[in-house]
Specification:
InterPro entries: Haem_d1_sf, WD40/YVTN_repeat-like_dom_sf. This protein is mostly beta strands and about 800 residues long. It is about 10% helix and about 35% strand. The strands form 13 sheets. Strands 25, 26, 27, 28, 29 and 47 form a 6-stranded antiparallel beta sheet that branches.
């Protein structure tokens, strides 16, 4: 189809639409202007955006106005389009956010031309200038925001930029660019622009009122391959994470920021003042993908895509907060990662500090909720809660507005509510102490009372759950029967009209440890409680403050997972690799061939079965027998060695295997004796043992009572997040009898499904004239989703 014919047909369809619509009001749609956007910056300062023309979404050709001269000041957004190599301007304060057309003489939505392959943008603190990092030629483009025009000169960088930030405090201002090849942080001067005098046409104006700071640029070598940088602009401190190491570097950008701290190398800022290992004892071969400071300065968040988790670091103490220990009830045993488990693969995040006024009076009560919003690769935007805090304090002068609390840091710091943001160290209790979840114990460790405030804390460290949803067991269990069990059951049913099936011994359902026994049956409680979040809350009556614990169903730690319970099952951590070896150092000595018996959960009394065929030498034929013939009892155990002895029962070998008959690496397995082995598709098999030198010792986690992978019939098995009891049926269990069941998570993630493809940046817009908002940049669909922070599900709009 020719272009002329295409235009004619589309014009006809447009006329038909207008004729059908009659006189109904038409909403004009802006033409597509974004092209693979990758970053956005919300600008609020001296420069303000005038109202848009309703016909072509343009603004006047004069320089932009001063915010002080505008009746309704409106900030704006700057969007980096990496393919078109332009920076777009977004009216974020409009009822429907739109791209701004900067030049009506050019068809379409015109934008600011910058360098090749731009990757990031940052505005200075007074909102008069912006810097754009260009990867194509390793430069910084500068934009005069009064005229929305790029300066003719660019700044040459000594490496490929990954991100750009600006900072300003009482005594210094500057810019910081994260570089690769070489791995370095470039700290350079700041840029500010004055409004042009007189009448000008900004569309052709060459910026001439912009001034660079006097400080010389400095390069700081970094210990790894950097991936992201975040700035605490008020403190003048940067946090940097790496793609190849689990470290976070804190960098003082100025002498004022350095303060009393000392440089790890060198003696002057900019320099690294701390290095934090965010992987903890677990370690990792992966690095992070993103880092951010929370708005109150309490935490630093690290996003790790490889493990689909957010790691939380105590900002003041510079220490990793293990989410498994900090959450209550603890998730020790449910996870081996120290962060907060997320849904799908996270791509970008932004910290959010939510505030809710509960009582506005002389004794005020305010709730603060610390957390992050996360955008994932399945098009979902959801919330992660870290810590809920209720704070009662004397406020004789009244409370700040939500806007002033979020955007005016100086005003907030001077208000009594600022004391509510001073938090104790997490976790609030040791692993042993946290086992007591009674109301009295929780109140004792969660309430902090001072002369001028009372804090009530609820550690959460989990995805925010949808209201009223609970986890559940799906149906009854299915089972697999070994041949001898099927034969026994068939004989038991002979002469009866009912054929016996293995049924389900899983009478108890996944419940919290303290749920009453009468609620444990699936029929009585088909949606049994899995876990309870004990929320600490305050009540204010006059000037009296009281604390209480309120419990709610909270199963967000539950996974969609299948579990199998196998009687005398093989331990999965041992496997059947040809690695075992008969030792020549002692009778019955056996070498693991590299298997860590402690981590695999091997115990004295288990059975070791040799699966390899013996050699064809003299006397080796004596080791030929049935499938279970070469089975021995484990009588002594080390981390990589064990001792086996013959089993004094008919059908087992009466002599120990010899090196001559099994002279090479052999296949073997270890099975529990008269016990069930529980294995989850995600949780795996949980061992209560860990290696200490050449011996196996109980893990600290085991003392908590919720980490075990084996259980005897008739006993209670407590898994990571479910509790059940195995009961004998009409036919006794045989080796290999396996029950399989599935548990559904069945909770709704609080958030929105946006259909995004490649979300690259998520920001919170505190106040630019339209209340608190979020903006999500999606390069895959070339859109930006803008929504009120308190209504992200239905209140948002896409900018294209």
């Amino acid at each position: 189809m020719s272009n002329a014919r295409t235009i004619a047909i589309l014009s006809g369809l447009g006329l038909l639409t207008l004729a059908t619509a009659g006189c109904e009001e038409q909403v004009r749609v802006a033409p597509q202007g974004l092209n693979a956007p990758v970053a956005i910056e919300a600008v609020r300062g001296e420069v303000c955006l005038p109202a848009l023309d309703v016909e072509d979404f343009s603004i006047p050709s004069a320089a932009l106005p001063r915010c002080a001269d505008v009746e309704r000041p409106r900030g704006f957004g700057l969007v980096v389009n990496t393919v078109s190599e332009r920076v777009g301007v977004v009216d974020l304060a409009a009822s429907i956010p739109r791209l701004v057309n900067l030049d009506t003489r050019i068809p379409g939505i015109t934008q600011v031309k910058v360098g090749p392959r731009p990757i990031d943008v940052a505005a200075n603190r007074d909102g008069t200038a912006a810097l754009v990092a260009n990867q194509g030629d390793s430069t910084l483009s500068a934009i005069d925001l009064w005229t929305m025009r790029a300066l003719p000169e660019v700044v040459e960088l000594p490496g490929t930029p990954l991100a750009i930030e600006t900072f300003e405090n009482a005594s210094s201002a500057g810019s910081a660019a994260l570089l690769a090849e070489p791995n370095a942080l470039w700290v350079g001067p700041s840029l500010g622009c004055d409004r042009p005098e007189g009448t000008i046409d900004r569309r052709d104006h060459t910026p001439e009122n912009c001034t660079w700071g006097e400080q010389a640029a400095v390069e700081l070598a970094l210990p790894g391959q950097p991936i992201d940088i975040a700035l605490d602009a008020r403190e003048g401190v940067a946090a940097i994470v790496y793609r190849d190491r689990a470290d976070l570097s804190l960098i003082a950008l100025s002498e004022e920021a350095l303060g009393d701290a000392s440089c790890l190398e060198g003696d002057a800022a900019p320099c690294e003042i701390a290095r934090i290992d965010w992987a903890g004892e677990r370690g990792t071969v992966f690095g992070a993908t993103e880092v951010a400071f929370d708005q109150a300065g309490a935490f630093i968040y690290v996003l790790e895509q490889a493990e689909s988790q957010v790691v939380v670091i105590d900002r003041e103490r510079g220490e990793l907060i293990d989410a498994r220990l900090a959450s209550e009830p603890t998730t020790v045993g449910a996870s081996d990662v120290p962060g907060i488990a997320l849904v799908r693969q996270p791509r970008t995040m932004v910290p959010v500090l939510e505030r809710r006024v509960l009582v506005d009076g002389p004794t005020a009560l305010v709730a603060h909720r610390y957390g992050v919003m996360v955008a994932s690769d399945n098009g979902s935007l959801y919330r992660v809660d870290v810590l809920d805090v209720e704070c009662a304090f004397e406020a004789p002068q009244g409370l700040l507005s939500d806007e002033d609390f979020a955007a005016n840091i100086e005003l907030r710091d001077a208000h009594p509510e600022s004391r509510c943001l001073e938090l104790p160290a997490l976790p609030l209790a040791s692993l042993e102490a946290s086992a007591d979840t009674s109301d009295e114990a929780l109140l004792e460790r969660r309430i902090v009372e001072d002369e001028d405030r009372t804090l009530a804390m609820t550690p959460v460290f989990a995805l925010r759950d949808g209201a009223g949803t609970q986890g559940r067991l799906v149906g009854r269990a299915s089972c697999e029967q070994p041949d001898d069990l099927r034969e026994a059951m068939s004989q038991a049913s002979a002469g009866t009209s009912t054929a016996l099936g293995c049924g389900s011994p899983l009478i108890d359902q996944p419940v919290a440890p303290d749920v009453d026994d009468e609620l444990r049956n699936f029929i009585d409680a088909p949606r049994a409680e899995l876990m309870q979040l004990a929320r600490t809350q305050l009540q204010v009556e006059g000037n009296r403050v009281e604390a209480e614990i309120n419990r709610q169903v909270f199963d967000v730690r539950l996974r969609n997972e299948s579990w199998s319970l196998t009687y005398e099952g093989a331990l999965p951590g041992v496997g059947s690799q040809e690695r075992g070896l008969i030792s020549s150092e002692g009778e019955g000595a056996f070498l693991s061939g590299g298997v860590d018996y402690c981590a695999a959960g091997v115990e004295v009394g288990d059975r070791l079965r040799i699966l390899s065929e013996p050699a064809a030498g003299a006397g080796c034929a004596d080791f030929q027998g049935s499938e279970t013939f070469l089975t021995y009892e484990i009588t002594e155990l080390g981390a990589t060695t064990l001792t086996i002895s013959p089993i004094d029962q008919e059908g087992f070998a009466t002599m120990l295997p010899t090196r001559e008959c099994f002279d090479t690496g052999l296949r073997y397995e270890v099975r529990a004796h008269q016990q069930w082995i529980a294995t989850g598709t995600q949780s795996g098999f949980a061992s209560v043992w860990e290696r200490e030198g050449q011996t196996c010792v109980l893990r600290d986690d085991a003392l908590h009572g919720r980490v075990q992978g084996r259980v005897a019939s008739g006993e209670l098995w407590e898994g990571p997040y479910l509790t059940l009891r195995i009961r004998e049926g009409e036919v006794g269990a045989r080796e290999g009898l396996s029950y399989t069941f599935r548990v559904d998570r069945a909770f709704a993630v609080a958030g929105a499904s946006l259909g995004t493809v490649l979300p690259s940046e998520l920001i919170v817009i505190d106040e630019i004239g339209a209340g608190r908002q979020i903006a999500l940049v999606d390069a895959g669909t070339s859109t930006i989703y803008v929504a009120p922070l308190d209504n992200i599900t239905t209140g948002g709009n896409f900018v294209r």
